[in-house]
Amino acid sequence: MSMRRKYLALAIGICLFSGGASAQSRIDHFGFGRDATADEMARYFAISPSGAGLPPGSGTAKAGAAIFANTCAACHGDKLQGNPAKGIGGDRLIGGRGTLASKSPVKTVESYWPYSTTLFDYIKRAMPFNAPGSLKDDDVYALVAYILSEAKIIKPNETMDAKTLPKVEMPNRDGFVPDPRPELQLYR
Amino acid sequence: MIRAAFTAEKRVVEPTLVEAVFTTMLVHKPAGPPLRFIIREDQLCGEFELNVKPRLHQAWCGCRLVVGSLRERNLNSDEKVVYDDKARHMAEQMVIAEQRQIAQRLREDCDCKDGMFPRRMISSRRGFLVAAGSLVGAAGAATLAHAETAKAPPGAEFFTVPDDPTKEQGRPVADQSYGTRSQFETEVRVRYPTPNANTSWSLTPLDKGLGNITPSGLHFERHHGGIPTIDPARHNLLIHGMVGRPMTFSMADIKRLPSVTRKHFIECSGNGLTEWNKPTMKTVQGTHGLLSTSEWTGVQFATFARETGLKEGAAWVLAEGADAAVMTRSIPMEKMLKDALIVYGQNGEAIRPEQGYPLRLLLPGYEGNTHIKWLRRLQVSDKPFMTREETSKYTDLLGDGKARIFTLDMDAKSVITFPSGDMKLPGPGFYNITGLAWTGRGRVQSVDVSLDSGTTWYPARLESLPEPMCTVRFSFPWMWDGKAAVLQSRCIDETGYVQPTLKQLIAIRGDNGPFGSVYHLNAIQSWAVSEAGDVTNVHA
Prior knowledge:
The structure holds two protein chains of two kinds. By secondary structure, chain A is mainly alpha-helical. Chain A contains six helices and four strands, in the order H-E-H-E-H-H-H-H-E-E. Chain A is globular. Chain B has three domains: 78 residues, no CATH class; 195 residues, Alpha-Beta Complex (Sulfite Oxidase, Chain A, domain 2), CATH 3.90.420; 126 residues, Immunoglobulin-like, CATH 2.60.40.650. In chain B, the strands form nine sheets. A five-stranded mixed β-sheet of chain B has the order 12-11-20-15-16. In chain B, strands 13, 14, 17, 18 and 19 form a five-stranded antiparallel β-sheet that branches. In chain B, helix 4 runs antiparallel to helix 5. Chains A and B meet through strand 1, helix 5 and strand 4 of A and helix 3, strand 11, strand 12, helix 6 and strand 20 of B.
């Protein structure tokens, strides 16, 4: 077989092979999954520090105090001091300002949490522990107002809603730094 | 009458008596000085009963008992060990749980092993049922005595052991079976005794682990709202937010997409949180058990991203679980498009309920909390959502009062699993030191072992080819001369990062941890071997 004929045979082989591959059409999308419906998406929420995602409604510390006593105090204490008892283990919610740089840091909503919106998101999402996701939005706003008021972050008469809550400045708002790892000191 | 478990430190024992100061953290504590009572010196741990009014029982059920001279310790302002009430309570509870675990171990039936590989006593109700059942058949007192100790551990079934298995037929091949482990294998996960078992964690028994893969039933757990039961036929994954086309995928849809299979470790960034200030846990299960490795099967996030499209500016993805905690974490898009997997397979079968059945996020090398289990939703965004877990919990408070946020990568780490804490070497001679090394920043490059507390280092042997973001088992042949030694290992990853000492880490992050810098303790672990062969957890 001459060199020329060898190349010819090779070319025919390539044509045949690519001809075979073209039997499968190009894959743009797999065709699995469906369009998400508006209803479906409306069932979920996630609230960012900008306030995006906050629902309508409002609440005050006064309303929150009553809800807290009934729904939250068993685990978080009637003074929001937490309850480490067996079977409970609710976090302390207020106090601890000025302790973060000490040898006994006390991390609470008041002393540590950087964003007020997180409080709304978490209570609506996962509280109370024995009936997660059962609170109405007005109740969540009221509880947030109560906790922030007890923490002396807002005034007792301030109303919390989608407009006011994101504007609340948390004491430890500037207490966080990005991850610097790998730590340069380890390379000395 | 109240019952409470307690523990004490030997170094504060007075010659004949230990004074116990009983305090409470609860609001309902009666006013006045703390209660005092006397316990015997040899009762350094255990349970006690106290005659009190029933009304006070509830008020005291969260109390802790401090044995020794509390006031003296407080007067010493240079005292380095600083835990807040909650941290101290949890550490004490963990020590108690571990002691209970150790107390359950069988004495070895021959001197040859002498505690080297402690086996756990089996204490399930099944044993009693077996014992009761075998009485009906015949056999008498000998069978009863045997049956009493013949209790199958979790995951095993009890079978009578023949004198000579070659002289009788074994069990027939079962149709439609799943299989159990040997009744002689006893390792189990141990739960960290947080007050609430629904938000708690359990630790993998690394001391008896073999090879690289963690058996699915021994994979460590961390749940914030219990383990949900989810019917895969009703479970969907919603992807929306800054995407071209918001989409919903059923489990059947997901399984039809092209898949990948990769081995990766998952480590909770809280692994070893009891060990910052002093050696607290006795065993490697206690110090390092929030580490497990599996072979995971699933679909790359990039595959989904091409289906939905991504909008300009999409930089973060919120992942949400379908558990009672509705766990959420924000993940950088860079990571999601680099190697994030949406997995449904673990070690050749569907992932376990404790691991997120039917679907979980797998982020190779990232801290465990971000690997959202029971994954139901991904919301694409331009900014992180600052969820509770990523702000108030999984952040690292430093000595200066500032906290690191989004500390997602797990740095290089290693630990010797044999010999390790609470084992006993029977005498001088050959020991095959073995352990695990891993890094969240790529492959393990090499592992060194030291026999003298880090003064001299020798290269260890890697037992398999290191894979990215996966553990590798190492070993080191050691001829023990019977002298006291301190065993250490250090991992060097492919970036050149060398696993640091605890001293180095504390110099950078401060010494206000637990509940200061709780997370990301990747320091070199030290095991002291005494001349008698006892292996203990030490800071060296």
